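The data layer described in this paper is built around a simple, fixed record for each protein. Such a record has a labelled line for the sequence and another for the backbone structure tokens. For reference, a complete record is included directly beneath this paragraph.
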Amino acid sequence: MTYANISGWGKCLPPAVLTNDDLATFLDTSDEWITSRTGMKERRISHVNVSELAAVACQRALAAAGKTVADVDLIVFGSTTFDEICPNAASNVQRILGANNAACMDVSTACTGGMYSLTVANSMIRSGVVSSALVIGAECISPIMDWTNRDVAVLFGDGAAALYLESADEQTGVLAESLGCYGEARDILSVQGWGMKYANQQKYFGESNWAFLGQEIFKKAVSGMAQACDKVLEKSEISADEIDLVVPHQANLRIIDTLVKKLKMDKDSVFVNIEKYGNMSAATILVALVEAVEEGKVKSGDMILMPAFGGGLTWSAHLIKWGIRTDAISQSDAELPECEHSGLTLVKSIINNKC
């Protein structure tokens, strides 16, 4: 039987930081208010488009795997903030990398985008369609953020991560997954003014209005991720106490804590980095996985549970068995163009350009 081993990993975080205190300079909020409600302290603001973030993350993932662009059969790009809808953003990553042998596709399921992309790539490798793939989760949310809306402006940030998958005989990579969606509740988390539905409507020109019903999202998020985790554990015939590490979507610390209690898992086994980056939507869970590997939290053969939820309201959980190697084979020298501005300066520029 063929499996899809994760042999490379990389992330790309924009250098410009936007702190809670920065947000308090133009919103009615404070560091204490944001931290106590979300667990977030800061987030990143990108000075480049999402494909550039993704390409750097991919170069770092390839280096970690000891591979070149010629080894890539497929690029699956999960995001909500693609540079363009047509042509697709994955093709732009292919062009930047020079990965001319790779098929390219975009996946749009909001915050679960990176994980749904992992399912696509894993399935195509295991079925023999391709032998390798780059899986991307990346977002540049800041340009379309409603920076006047405290409920959402404090939550989101920009970033990217990528995984390199390749066919393997040993049982590694994704062992089980569960995907779903509460379509009837899709309107409780939506961005109005963004998409063809709003074409030629002057009131939305250059603007977006976020619908975000926090309490309802909280309930659906916990419910969806919990049932997805239960299904994955049942499919794989393992118990919760056999999980070595939980890497959940980092949308809100309260959601993470509630989910862990519901699953009756040890809080010490949960990886959390929400305080540094906030919610990077499709990038969030993959960035967290990459950091867990880099920080030595992932060991050879570890069982890793990765629950997520996003707009739609989509939900998922993946059970991954990590392979033998936890160290990068080499390091990439790929870097973003230099950024001369602070996160606050970049955000103020976005706000001014919308006026």
About this structure: The mean pLDDT is 94.
